[in-house]
Amino acid sequence: MSFKALQEIVDKAKESGKAFWEIILEDEINESQISREKVLEKMEKLFLAMKDADDNYNGHLKSPSKLVGGDGERISEARKNQTMICGDFMAQVMEKAIKMGESNACMKRIVAAPTAGSCGVIPAVLLTYQNENKIAEMKMIEALFITGGIGQVIAHRASIAGATGGCQAEIGSASAMAAGAMVYLAGGDEEAIVHGAALALKSLLGLACDPVAGLVEVPCVKRNVIGAFNALASADMALAGIRSQIPPDEVIDAMRSIGDAMPSSLKETGEGGLARTPRGMRIEEELKK
């Protein structure tokens, strides 16, 4: 993508009178040199793949390590029994986030958005909102262009890889992308979109990447829930008129500087954090055997 800052997209949208997602779509057409129809078709395939992964979750599957699997079904049962404290909408978000993360660990087909470890955040938020509000598929595809644009700016200015920037770069980026999309779906303008993303990213700065036994399972799957909830809260704040005191692009830059300052033990190596707890080390030893 030619844009190196979220503010560039905002400015282009204001100058042209076009929607935020349309600016990103046109940029992708120019960069890829393929037709508008083909670009829209590619995004539609990604959206349908997200829906398919959600629809085909298998609660009986366990990951090869046996560390995850079946928790999405537990949330589903709790929803049916109406025992969820946070209400049905948020319970659906939780359920979808866990199901997607577990499907990834169980080697099922998912959409890395922006990464496999953070694959549950965006679909959990967007699919639940669509189901609850009967949003047209084309509108959802437009929202995905917003997630893509935000994600590409983050990737350019900072990172979306846990090995480079810690989990803030994965779950944090996914949460920012989802927040921006939700602001759009709820009727927010371009300023609200980027500030929703900034508020989400700010809230997860410094998040370590500390996978137990080096697997994208513990604590990764459950962190998708936190990223999804954070996205919704941030979107609501932005829609209410709250703006990040630190400009969105500067928030991304801060994430990069924090990632650079993190020790390697907290960047996907499995050598720090939860991975080095007594239980975490026992799990690793058991799996080695």
Pick out its properties.
single chain, about 290 residues, mainly alpha, 13 helices, about 65% helix, about 0% strand, globular
Question: In words, what does this structure look like?
Answer:
The structure is a single chain. The protein is mainly alpha-helical and 289 residues long. The protein has one domain. It is 64% helix and 0% strand. The protein has 13 helices and no strands. It has helices at 6-16, 20-32, 36-55, 71-80, 88-105, 121-133, 137-157, 162-165, 171-185, 190-203, 220-239, 248-261, 278-288. α6 crosses α11 (220-239) and α9 (171-185) runs parallel beside α11 (220-239). The radius of gyration is 18 Å and the shape is globular. The protein starts with 5 loop residues before the first helix and ends with a helix. The mean pLDDT is 98.
The termini sit apart by: 46 Å
Main sheet summary:
none
Quickly count the helices.
Answer: 13
Shape: globular
Number of strands: 0
Whole-number count of domains: 1
What gyration radius follows from the Cα positions, in whole Å?
18 Å
What do the pLDDT scores average to? Answer: 98
**β content, as a range?**
under 5%
Layout: helices, strands, pairs:
Blueprint (H helix, E strand, L loop, with lengths): L5 H11 L3 H13 L3 H20 L15 H10 L7 H18 L15 H13 L3 H21 L4 H4 L5 H15 L4 H14 L16 H20 L8 H14 L16 H11 L1
Helix pairs in contact: 1-2, 2-7, 3-7, 4-5, 5-6, 5-11, 6-9, 6-11, 7-9, 9-10, 9-11, 10-11, 10-12
